[in-house]
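Hi F.,

I've been meaning to write this up properly since the lab meeting, where we talked about keeping a consistent format for the predictions we share between groups. The idea is simple: the sequence comes first, exactly as it goes in, then the structure tokens exactly as they come out, then a line or two of notes. No screenshots and no reformatting. I'm using this chain as the first example so we have something concrete to point to.
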Amino acid sequence: MKQDVALAKAVAEHDDVVDDAFGRMKDMLIKMISENKADGEYAVDLLMIAKYFERIGDHAVNIAEWVEFSVTGIHKGE
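Output, unedited:
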């Protein structure tokens, strides 16, 4: 709505933060399962939630790229 290219770029730049958080969560849950297999189902549920958040971040980046395109006429990769 604001056609804020700087904000759109900031969203895209923060995608790595979300990806790193997902990686740390995945490692933590692998350790959790290896230490107590009874927590396996709970850990898988948490992993799915973490993955959904990671995907939301990916979708936010896609939207940010299209915002930038709508303002500049240049799409990432062109």
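Notes:
The CA atoms of residues 9 and 69 lie 11 Å apart.
The mean pLDDT is 92.

If this format works for you, I'll send the rest the same way.

G.
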